[in-house]
Amino acid sequence: MERISLIGCLIVMGMLVGCSSNKHLGNQSNTVQEKDNLGSIGKILRTADHARVLRDYASVKSNEHDEAQLEKILATIDQLVEDKDESVMLDIRVGNYGDVEVRDLFYATSDSLIGIRAEKNEVETIKVEKDKKSSEWSRTKAIDNGKVSAEDTEIFVLEKNHGMYVALEAKLENIRNGKCLGEVSGKTYVYTDDGYGREILYVIGSYENKKKSSDWDMNIVQFISSDGTFKDNTRDVYNVENVFIYKDGCREVKDEAMRVINMYPGNGLQKNIKKAFK
Fold this sequence. Notes:
Blueprint: H1 7-17, E1 25-28, E2 31-34, H2 47-60, H3 67-79, E3 88-95, E4 102-109, E5 112-118, E6 123-130, E7 137-143, E8 154-156, H4 163-176, E9 179-184, E10 187-193, E11 199-206, E12 218-225, E13 237-246, H5 251-261, H6 270-277
Antiparallel strand pairs: 1-2, 3-4, 3-13, 4-5, 5-6, 6-7, 7-8, 9-10, 10-11, 11-12, 12-13
Helix pairs in contact: 5-6
């Protein structure tokens, strides 16, 4: 059966076409207010981090393909869900350098992915479940205070059965097909393209010695550049996407998911969201 990735629904559209500038207004306490679903989460990547990425990238960009390091980092990602009962939380921040335009908050298990895609003025809730008999996955969604959109149900099959791969499968395929430049400063650098004539740089770091549950297990930073320099001048960096993976969960992700969904008491997936992020 043909495998269909949901990344276009969950991530890519936000990357390639950006966010709508239309204003959706909410009514609270008889006062019309602009909804802000993103919360106060700061910049997508600090200037110091970006400068270090460019410096480290310059030191490895002429390297030959490091297949052993690529396999090592892909195996590390798989290890996050190696136990069939393992659950992870994903915090995905998409935007241009400096600003977050879309934030995805997901709770993923071996047979489900549920969560929120928050833009400034709109929220889309997403539920993906695996059928125990057929192993097929199906997706439904609801927007703002709307009901679950049954007509938008999509059936697909995953190569690896865990909800994390619903959100990251296409990204991991890009990484797998890219050129691994090696590891520097504890982070793996992978160079590829997005199929639209733009260059992609993935910077992947894992955090194996966690001291507290709010520490991330893995961070995948994706830069899209028009010329491969990945500099932040005159919009040469079109997009930055920061993916945080938390094997032990994250209180910030839970609190933000609950804050957002509480703005939409009539959302058809509200109960599912609250149960996942409680």
